[in-house]
Amino acid sequence: MANVRLRLAGMVRAIEAKADPWSGTVSFGGRTHRIDEWEWAAPVDGAMYGVALNDEKEWEALSTEMNAPPYEKPPEGPVLYMKPANTINAHRRPVLLPRWVKHLQAAPALGLVIGRTAARVRREQALDFVFGYTIVNDLSIPHEQRHRPAVKEQARDGFAPVGPWIVPKEEASPLSSLTARVYVNGRLVQRADPSRFRLPVEQWLAEVTEFMTLYPGDVLFFSWPADAPLVTAGDVVRIEIERIGVLENEIALEQGGDE
Amino acid sequence: MMRRARVAWNGIVTEAEPLDDGRLRLPDGTIVGELEVMWLPPVEPGVIVALGLNYAEHAGELSFVAPKEPLLFFKGKNTLIGHRGRTVRPEGVNMMHYECELAVVIGRPASRVKAERAYDYIFGYTIANDYAVRDYLENYYRPNFRVKNRDRTTPLGPWIVSHEEVGDPMALRLRTYVNGAVVQEGYTGDMIFSIPYLLEYITEFMTLAPGDVILTGTPKGAVNVQPGDEVVAEIERIGRLINYIV
């Protein structure tokens, strides 16, 4: 049971609630409800920035490529990408698979929700600027190139389910214990934890806010793409992060268009 | 309203209408001088989509082959700053340059818009000066955020001019002045990917919302700027956006 901030469909603002993902219940307003009896909304509406090339396993796999054209050498500064407002999606809402694509990569990610305006923060104080943690399903159309921003692959409508809620950091376990598990159609396909991060999140917060301010409600997220599953229409992707919660989304075939 | 600014004045943030004599009319009729207000970006976009290498000559100058499809990247609201604002040149860098760009402001939710209908979805236009600090260029997701997403490096304004008032946005002269001297000149008709094409391309995969902004790229003529410089980005039928390097 954790105290969380959540937003249901129709709520303009997040509310405080008690949640127990493992029994599948949330309590607020003096009543207990089943999680699946609600339509959910994403608990955040700020900017969502991903830190790329932070997964040690991915970094190792790319070590040769990173020293060849067009990259020439491994990156020195943070490599960031953005999931803009149109990509934000909610727990149990479908993610649409474009009709010309066979698979999407569904990378689990730990989201740090910013609590106070963070500019030029020092590594030692970085977590003071974090309100809490959430789960991000960082969906993309599989792509090899990292030379140019992968906007068409990463920024389609609905490609960033986030939630189901935010767990304030005081309520959560230590960062190092936040193990992610990904299930596709109920089968465990990936397990990863923050020991795989190339640099600690505090270090990234310092490096990122050295040149760009993060605002309350913004999310800086850290994914584990190296062994993330490829999913297709009909698949249900369930990302669990220990003591944070469970984020579940079905992949559905996109309808309409006139191709 | 044909021209719309956003300013801070007397402890409030308010819409304002620029008048021909340079003064501003507030919604309650109060008239204020242009130096009595703090100019804010005229729109608070949810999403900012920017274009790289969208003018043939600029693409050539940076020794790149013109892209086959639009080179898009995103920017955060941390980058925006209003007319007459100050932008920091980081200490010790060798190359920081302005980029005068026509900024498109979306007026209606736009999803899968056809190029022929693109202008129906555009509220109006403003000017952006999308500074880049080239020292920080790296070859990953280039142009990377450290080059293009720095705090207060994207002056936007001074105001929005409606689409009807501008007429054809593909027929506008752009000019940048540093300390009064012309350093960059271009013509929106030289864009590789036109505004209608871009709107169709972008909204095929992402829905744009009212207030979202597309920065359409910059023509040739990018040169280094130094602390103390006054940089003016000017676009015909829109206005002059002033910024100071510190």
Can you describe what's shown?
Chain B: It comes from Geobacillus thermopakistaniensis (strain MAS1). The complex is a heterodimer of chains A (259) and B (246). The longest helix of chain A is centred in the C-terminal third of the chain and has 9 residues, at 201-209. In chain A, a hairpin with a 2-residue loop joins strand 13 and strand 14 (187-192). Helix content of chain A is 7%, strand content 39%. Chain A has three helices and 18 strands. Chain A has a single domain (42-253), classed as Alpha-Beta Complex (Fumarylacetoacetate hydrolase, domain 2). Chain A has 259 residues and is mainly β. Chain B folds into two domains: 1-40, SH3 type barrels, CATH 2.30.30; 43-245, Fumarylacetoacetate hydrolase, domain 2 (Alpha-Beta Complex), CATH 3.90.850.10. Helix content of chain B is 9%, strand content 38%. In chain B, strands 1, 2, 3, 4, 5, 6, 7, 8, 11, 12, 14 and 17 form a twelve-stranded mixed β-sheet that branches. In chain B, strands 9-19-18-15-16 form a five-stranded mixed β-sheet, with no helix packed on it. In chain B, a hairpin with a 5-residue loop joins strand 2 and strand 3 (24-25). The longest helix of chain B is centred in the C-terminal third of the chain and has 9 residues, at 195-203. The chains are: A mainly beta (259), B mainly beta (246). The A-B interface holds A 47, 49, 52-53, 70-72, 75-82, 84-87, 98, 119, 146-152, 155-157, 211-215, 257 and B 46-47, 49, 71-74, 76-79, 111-112, 136, 138-146, 149-151, 205-209.
Summarize this structure briefly.
The complex is a heterodimer of chains A (259) and B (246). Chain A is mainly beta. Chain A has helices spanning 56-61, 151-154, 201-209, and strands spanning 2-8, 15-20, 25-28, 31-34, 40-41, 48-52, 79-83, 88-89, 95-97, 104-114, 130-140, 160-168, 180-184, 187-192, 219-223, 230-231, 236-241, 245-253.
